[in-house]
Structure formats: C-alpha cells, structure tokens
Amino acid sequence: MDELLRARAGFVLADVDCSATPGIAADKKRAEQMLAEGAEHLGALQERLFAASRSGATQRVLLVLQAMDTAGKGGIVRHVVGAVDPQGVHLTAFKKPTDEELAHHFLWRIERRLPEAGMIGVFDRSHYEDVLIGRVRQLAPADEIERRYGEIIDFEKRLADDGVTIVKVMLHISRDEQKARLHERLDRPDKHWKYRPGDIDERLLWDDYQAAYQIAIERTDAEHAPWYVIPANHKWYARLAVQAQLIAALERIDPQWPPADFDVEVEKRRLASS
Question: Which of 28, 59, 131, 183 is 20 to 30 A from residue 162's alpha carbon, by CA?
Fold first, then answer.
C-alpha cells in the first residue's frame, strides 16, 4: 500500500479520487474486522518498541496528521492510535499559537512535543500549519513562508538521523464530502460541539488550501519523511490505510525484546522457594 499512497515526484493532489480505496478490497463491515485484526499486530509492535527503549534503543515513531476540517483526524486518533497501550503514545493537538509560541521560531513549540524513545508520537496538525494556513491567510511574509519549507526539510532530516521514523499523512476528502459532514454536525445536537462558524470561513478558501497542500507536499516529501495522501471520503478506508502505514513503519524498525539483565534460572529458583 505504501507505493499506492506515496506522493512521489510528479504527484498531483487534484488527480486523487477521494472516494477511492486503493489497495483494499473490502466493505465497511469487513474493514471493521480488518481494523481489529491489525490493532493486535500494531499493539504488539508498539509494545516491543516501548520495551526496547528500556534497554537503550532510541527509535520512535512520529505520525503527522494533516487534513481539511472534518476529514477524520479524530477518528484516526480514537480508532487506530487509541487501540494500542496509551502508555506508549504521546498525542499533541496543535491549536492556534499562543503569544509565547509566536515569540519563538515556528518550530519551537514542535520541538517541545517530540516523542521520546520508545514512543509513538502523534501530531494532530503540526508544523505544516505554518506553511498551510500561514500561506493561505498570509500570516507571514512570502519570503518567510518560502524559507520555512527548507527549515522543515532540515528539521525532519535531523529527527530521522536521531532515530525518529516519520510518517506524514494527509487525509484527503472532497469538497462535497466536507459539506455533508458539516451538515451532519449542524443537524445533530451531539455534534454541535465539533462545529465552529470559522469552519465555513476556511471552506471558502478551499482552492487556496488545495494549492498550499500541493506545494507543501512537493517541497517536503523525502525518503526520510515521506508523504502519504489517503483518500478519506470513506472513514473506514482512511483508518485502515493509516493503520497500515504505522504497521509498516514499525516493521521497518523491527524492535526487539530487550534481553534480561538478570539470571533467569536463578530468579526461577528464587521464585519457586519463595
């Protein structure tokens, strides 16, 4: 599935069918079974990653989730990442920068939330907001936005060299699907808390955001920090696809159980006589 979703050279965001399900032949019911099966494997890999760090291994994973509003980031966090031991997960949902954060370099607040060894870090939005909304809303001068792409590349290369496996995901929904999901939030009292009037303001800039995503993906895709664009009109597909990327990342790391730092046989005899 990696190659089906990878945004390599020549990638065109507008060509992606948001309702497609590349690499998975299933329906919603079967997908739920597959997600549960995958959760067991993901959980086992995550436990090994966490255990390996107790003996000095430095590997960790950083999942970067980017998307337009309503694309399903929360569902990924609950149904994919939420299926593993929470002790091994570090989740950060980045909001509008505070005054303190704005007083620093744009990567300052990101550096402070990076996962420690043995952890799966999840960024619900990320440093990419500074070249997405920053570009669309002109929150920084054009030359500053241009510099940020290079700074992001250097930053992610430094992370990769330090043992961070980076998985960058854009959940890609269609404009019509977003409209339907916003309608659902307005129609259901239990969804009102998810709705913000500002969602419509951002939606009116849809084409500008699509262009900003295209540029960000083109400029920052790299072997050490690949971009995966996941069709997300079907929530079940997006969840399976993100789970598959996390599993693949952990399998590439292949964390090993740390050896005992004590004599196992001696401890068995002590236990037997206790």
Answer: 131
Nearest CA to 124 among 175, 54, 181, 69?
A: 69
Phi, psi of 67 (to 5 degrees): -175, 160
For the record, the structure tokens of 24 come out as 């998975």
- The angle at the Cα of 107, spanning 217 to 153, to the nearest 5 degrees, equals 35
Tokens matching residue 2: 């990696």
Task: Select from 270, 243, 261 the least CA-distant residue to 40.
Answer: 243
pTM: 0.95
170-213 confidence digits (pLDDT tens): 999 999 999 999 999 999 999 999 999 999 999 999 999 999 99
What strand order describes the sheet that includes 227-231? 89-93, 120-124, 60-67, 164-172, 227-231
Residue type, 233: N
* pLDDT of 2 higher than 90: no
CA 41 to each of CA 53, 58, 153: distance values in angstroms, whole numbers, following the listed order: 19, 21, 31
Number of residues assigned to the chain = 274
Place of tokens 């980017």: 66
How many angstroms separate the CA atoms of 83 and 252, rounded? 20
SS3 (DSSP) at 251 = helix
What is the C-alpha separation between 98 and 112, in angstroms, rounded? 14
d(CA 222, CA 233): 26
Q: Which two tokens stand for residue 7?
A: 């945004």
